[in-house]
Write a structure and sequence with these properties.
The complex is a heterodimer of chains A (1061) and B (172). Chain A has 1061 residues and is of the alpha/beta class. The longest helix of chain A is centred in the N-terminal third of the chain and has 20 residues, at 12-31. Chain A is globular and about 85 Å long. Chain B is built from nine helices and one strand, in the order H-H-H-H-H-E-H-H-H-H. Classes of the chains: A alpha/beta (1061), B mainly alpha (172). The interface between A and B is large, with 56 and 62 residues.
Chain lengths: 1061, 172
């Protein structure tokens, strides 16, 4: 063999090298097996658990003070899913997005893993023994003279803990605690209490023919949203005699978008309109104050008088909110609504017991003056959620001893000296009083994530137990609890019926009865608060509407990736802050979407991207609360790399003057004007929205209520032609944009919903005699073809709240892709929050599309401004009987199952994305990165978030297409259960995650081939239609048209004109 | 060797490797069939099943009612072995785990990939014996993987026994 490198031979040494490598590769590829790992048994098998089978615990949601009942699904010791408790009197089985996301609070990577002690600017982890000793020592130090001035700020909650807390504080000589609610609605609650006797009466929408909301966002944060939404949707779904909703206010909120008419009144002028309806002012005056035409006001007046049963609701954010709420209650009394549509006897918990802004301002004054020797905070974050110019943080910093009891580091905890981390509510015992006469029980759904489930850390402890333990160890105060073992024992002894009754009731989740009410100090009223100056007298060109974010609330939700990634129901923006500005104003000022503007009020300023939105008055700006955290969620979103200043969005509270309502002490949000100034920079606003317009595609269809009769009388084929798309109705005389191109609705889709026969994938072209029958044959032994899984979505019910979206994330292990560190393939730098979504890489299997119809034509006339309609459509895989995605898949990874599912087989998928390109509904989502692989920088389930993953659902790998599966794991589980019990599936025995969560009950899932299932009847509803039926897709998702209730002389749907946004 | 020569040889070898891989996959060599790792405690299935007549479900208690077959808790073992055979060296290893409050880190043998859902109870209740998939465990001094657990092996059985073989039966 030559050694000449120029010869044609391969050197022996090289040959061996190459062969060795190749052989090793072969071995590695061919015989490479994943290490099967270990099997770790229990030491002692726990009671009532079967491996791989879920255990369900009834407990209570603590994400807000409403106190909805939960069913927590726990598998092998980990809580994996939350659903509403169907038996619970508050939420009746529904659960909002924020409730769903409680799981990401439980498994939050930012949670404190041990007690923390501050040393200078740094924090040190410590043991519980040390932390308790420190707490005892600090408490002893303030005993005596100082104790009376010490303060405990607790999150506002109802139930047993506040009462115990006051008792404990009293033992130390400390006054009752403050129940902090950042966006407390005492102005309305107090007016309600004075007029009706309860803070939040039950709203019987089903008895009303007309609902007028003066900025009362009852589908969002006003009152108790989930039961209100259930009642509202039920009333609207009756279609006949459904209540018409009129929304009056400067900004069209989610509730406003659900209204049949929006009257864009100037901020703060709602009271004038209410007074007009009361007959206390003239039309001219009301028109002058509100900027609404006299004609509209007269029509409203006439409508209210002639409506019969009606309901007048008042919002809580305007400067005159208390007067407005009182006016609304007087109006309701005058119209005879109290006791009929407004039922005080079935009301909800007392929100006005929460500490008001006036109380908090008084506390700030005392802390600032150095009068407070000790401050304790649990679960509240006033350093972020109080108006910035109240200077809470500065005053709090002056308190010599500050002790925190929260689960997560936040702006307030960052100022404390010692933090004794609290259990998450899903790990704790407790009881809430969501409505008079109902005690909702809270029990641990799992052991504490930190400390018990993961014993590597000192972990958290329930604050109630910490307080008890400290007190019992102190001879001077502990006497009364000497015989109490722990908080659970104390709690049980105080609940009605005692231990035996409670143990029995725990499976149900609540008991009838009451708790001893916590003694609360009289509201400090406006002692410390100056009444806000009239909005018109403040500086600036625009009225500023600050509204509570329907998703993030006062900011509590901002550390939960699911909620950051959940598009705002109104604007569809994610991972960001924005200021809403009317397109007319934006055009006048030369501002485009994403231009950074500086919004300035007397209280402060923020720089934030502008978002043109049809639903604000041209003289108004609007901005949501909840973002702009400096500390909250840092480890989760930013890893360890970013320096200070890495925030998501801005805090709207920087703009709000610290002005409290003089009567109720409540915080008032819409009290100031603001100046707007361009900075010259611009950013891209992350959004999941493609277009806000349907472009005539007939995706979201609506029908005018008066035309429903034609649907009902028609039958069969006639039906098809009789269903007039909205806008073709005689009320406008003009065809709409939708009507111009919308396909004729028809019922030829029905074959797609029958039980599939031979080659059903060929739709109507298939036939029973085809030789390709295979498994699709109805008599195939698998019997899979007996069923046809289908879904109906009633758009008359859907409010766009998006609870289904978060429920889907929780059920189906959908990765969040907008976290800053996921944005780029280069882990050396953090990206922009939501950058992946800017690149259209969002993964929401079900998304809430929001379309506008009609709208602004270039003027600033309020009649023109308010003249648009919105429609919400939950869009998910339609499980087409004749799916365009299926024939284009080169590897048969997507195909049609005999029971009617469009199945995506992840392990077959090679990622060509042909299916997504061919899908007319755009409901297929691609894994651009290894979101489910821990070693990858884009890993979406950072420990311990991965403990939440549903073991029944595969975590998809990089390069794989995924989409809605109709919760196939639930179908198979139900089939398995039925087979195991030797029976057939019961009708409506189970449902999908989205349908289970829906607080509007808009989604119904089931077997369309079996007439006993609810869905099989609904698909034949006269309002039913298929999206893009003209494409011959034979979808399994059937939509029921929205129903519009136009007012007298109102167009049913705004005519489409050129220039519509 | 020059670069040019290397590019003549490498593609051929890679092709060879791919061919070998493909062939081995078809022969079931990609499975872990025969895998028989040493266990932390040499648990003798024959002694328990054949000599003492214990049923599989005594220890693998949820195989007939749950997707997971169930693995006996250390406490279950100690129920007998606190007294029975306490002097045997392997039982003393067990006692050592128990006394240290440590679970036994058994080596897992049978594992299907994450994208396969295998509900044990459906199979057991359909009359499939444990041995059909796991082999004669009652005779194995050291348990090994008896079947290939490849998809073809699954589907063959499903077709023969008229069980569903639609993809979405197992993959989701």
């Amino acid at each position: 063999m030559s050694t000449d490198t120029g010869s044609s031979g391969v050197k022996r040494r090289d040959f061996l090298k190459i062969m060795g490598t190749a052989g090793a590769t072969t071995a590695a590829v061919g015989c490479g097996i994943d290490d099967p790992g270990k099997l770790i048994p229990y030491l002692v098998h726990p009671d009532q658990t079967t491996p791989g089978v879920s255990t369900y615990y009834a407990t209570t949601c603590r994400e807000c003070a409403a106190g909805c009942g939960l069913i927590a699904e726990t598998r092998d010791g980990r809580t994996i899913k939350l659903e509403g408790n169907p038996a619970h009197p508050v939420n009746r089985g529904a659960l909002c997005a924020r409730g769903q996301a409680a799981l990401q609070g439980l498994y939050n990577p930012d949670r404190y893993r041990a007690p923390m002690i501050r040393e200078g600017d740094a924090w040190r982890e410590t043991t519980w023994d040390d932390a308790l000793a420190q707490l005892t020592q600090r408490l002893a130090a303030v005993r005596g003279a100082g104790a009376a001035n010490a303060v405990f700020i607790n999150q506002h909650e109802t139930g047993s803990f506040p009462a115990f807390l006051d008792e404990w504080l009293a033992a130390y000589g400390i006054g009752p605690h403050l129940g902090y609610e950042a966006l407390g609605q005492q102005a309305v609650a107090r007016a309600h209490r004075e007029a009706y006797g309860v803070a939040w009466p039950r709203l019987r929408f089903d008895r009303a023919r007309l609902v007028v909301s003066f900025g009362a966002d009852f589908l969002e944060d006003w009152g108790v949203s989930v039961p209100q939404q259930l009642d509202f949707a039920d009333a609207r779904a009756r279609v006949e005699n459904a209540p018409r909703l009129v929304y009056v206010g400067p900004r069209r909120s989610l509730t406003g978008l659900n209204a049949d008419e929006w009257i864009p009144a100037k901020a703060g002028s709602e009271l004038e309109i209410a007074r007009l309806l009361l007959g206390e002012t003239s039309t001219a005056q009301a028109a002058e104050a509100s900027g609404v035409s006299e004609e509209t006001l007269v029509r409203l007046q006439r409508e209210v008088q002639g409506a019969g049963q009606s309901m007048i609701l008042a919002g809580s954010t305007a400067a005159n909110a208390y007067d407005l709420a009182l006016a609304a209650t007087r109006l309701n009394r005058q119209l005879g609504n109290v006791g009929t549509t407004i039922v005080p006897g079935e009301g909800f918990a007392d929100d006005d017991r929460a500490a008001s802004l006036a109380d908090m301002l008084d506390l700030v004054r005392r802390m600032d003056a150095g009068q407070v020797p000790l401050a304790m905070v649990r679960g509240a974050n006033p350093a972020h959620s109080m108006p910035r110019n109240a200077r809470f943080a500065e005053a709090f910093a002056k308190v010599p001893v500050k002790i925190g009891f929260s689960s997560y580091p936040d702006e307030t905890m960052a100022l404390c000296d010692i933090v004794l981390p609290d259990h998450h509510p899903l790990e704790s015992w407790g009881a809430a009083v969501p409505m008079p006469g109902v005690v909702s029980l809270q029990q641990p759904a799992m052991t504490a994530v930190y400390g018990e489930f993961d014993p590597r850390f000192a972990g958290s402890r329930p604050t109630a137990d910490v307080l008890l333990q400290v007190a019992k160890a102190d001879a001077q105060v502990g006497g009364r609890w000497a015989n109490v073992a722990d908080w659970r024992a104390l709690l049980f002894s105080r609940l009605p019926g005692g231990e035996p009754a409670i143990t029995e009731a725990l499976t149900r989740g609540f008991i009838r009865g009451s708790l001893p009410a916590a003694a609360r100090p009289a509201p400090r009223a406006a002692a410390a608060a100056a009444p806000p100056p009239a909005i018109a007298s403040t500086a600036g060109d625009f009225d500023l509407v600050v509204y509570p974010s329907p998703v993030l609330g006062d900011g509590r939700g901002a550390n939960k990736p699911w909620l950051q990634e959940l598009p705002d129901p109104v604007t569809k923006v994610v991972w960001s802050s924005w200021v809403e500005i009317h397109p007319a104003t934006a055009e006048r000022l030369g501002i485009e979407r994403g231009d950074l503007v500086r919004v300035t009020t007397a209280a402060g300023n923020v720089v934030v991207p502008a978002l043109p939105y049809l639903g604000v008055r041209p003289d108004t700006l609007a901005i949501a609360t909840g973002q702009g955290h400096a500390v909250y969620g840092r480890a989760l979103y930013w890893e360890e790399r970013s320096g200070d200043g890495a925030r998501i969005g801005v805090n709207a509270m920087d703009l709000v003057p610290a002005a409290a309502d003089p009567r109720s002490g409540a915080i008032l949000l819409t009290v100031t004007r603001a100046a707007l100034e361009r900075t010259g920079d611009d950013v891209q606003i992350p959004t999941t929205e493609g277009s806000a317009r349907q472009h005539g595609r007939g995706i979201a269809r609506a029908i005018v209520a008066s035309e429903l009769g034609t649907l009902r009388t028609a039958s069969g084929a006639e039906q098809a032609t009789e269903i007039a798309p909205t806008g073709q109705s005689g009320t406008t005389g003009q065809p709409t944009e939708t009507a111009a191109h919308a396909p004729e609705p028809d019922t030829t889709f029905l074959p797609g919903l029958r039980s599939p026969t031979a080659n059903d994938a060929e739709g109507i072209f298939g036939n029973d005699s085809s030789k390709y029958q295979g498994m699709y044959a109805p008599d195939h032994w698998s019997r899979m073809a007996d069923r046809r899984w289908a879904m109906t979505i009633d758009l008359a019910r859907c409010t766009g709240c998006s609870a289904c979206v978060t429920a889907c994330y929780a059920e189906n292990n959908i990765p969040v892709v907008g976290m800053p560190y996921q944005a780029t393939a280069f882990p050396q730098r953090d990206g922009t929050p939501g950058e992946n979504i800017l690149r259209s890489r969002e993964m929401n299997w079900i998304r809430l599309e929001r379309y506008f119809e009609g709208g602004w034509h270039g003027g600033t006339d309020p009649g023109d401004v308010g003249n648009f309609e919105s429609r919400f459509v939950p869009m998910l895989c339609q499980h087409c009987g004749n799916a365009p995605c299926e024939p284009v898949c080169p590897v048969y990874a997507t195909y049609h199952s005999p029971d009617g599912l469009n199945v995506q087989v992840y392990n077959r998928c090679v990622g060509t994305r042909y299916c997504s390109n061919n899908c007319p509904y755009k409901v297929r989502y691609f894994n651009w990165f290894g979101y489910g692989e821990e070693a990858r920088p884009q890993y979406a389930f950072k420990y311990p978030l991965n403990l939440q993953l549903n073991p029944d659902v595969n975590v998809r790998g990089k390069g794989v297409m995924e989409k809605c599966s109709f919760c196939v794991q639930r179908i198979r589980e139900a089939e398995n259960r039925a087979t195991l019990e030797g029976r057939e599936l019961e009708p409506d025995e189970f449902t999908t995650a989205c349908a289970a969560a829906c607080p509007s009950r808009a989604i119904v899932f089931g077997d369309a081939a079996d007439p006993r299932w609810a869905v099989s009847g609904l698909v034949h509803d006269p309002r039913s239609y298929h999206v893009f039926a003209e494409l011959n897709t034979f979808t399994a998702v059937v939509y029921l048209q929205k129903v519009i209730h136009p007012g007298e002389g109102q167009p049913s749907s705004a005519p489409a004109a050129s220039g519509a946004h | 060797m020059t670069k040019r020569k290397k590019w003549q040889v490498i593609p051929g070898l890679v092709a060879l490797a791919v061919l070998a891989t493909t062939l081995s996959a078809y022969q079931g060599a990609s499975s872990q069939q025969g895998y028989a790792p040493a266990q932390p405690i040499a648990f003798p299935h024959p002694r328990h099943v054949q000599d003492l007549g214990m049923n599989c479900l005594y220890c693998h208690f949820s195989a007939d009612k749950a997707p997971d077959p169930g693995l006996p808790a250390v406490g279950t073992c100690m129920g007998c072995h606190t007294i029975a055979g306490a002097q045997l060296p392997e039982v003393q290893k067990l006692a050592a785990y128990w006394n240290a409050r440590q679970p036994i880190p058994w080596e897992r043998i049978h594992k299907v990939p994450d994208y396969v859902q295998f509900p044990h109870m459906r199979h057991v209740n359909a009359g499939v014996t444990c041995q059909q998939c796991h082999g004669p465990v009652q005779e194995m001094d050291r348990v090994y993987q008896f079947s290939s657990l490849n998809m073809g092996w699954c589907v063959d059985c499903h077709v023969q026994n008229q069980a569903r073989y639609d993809c979405s039966t197992c993959h989701y």
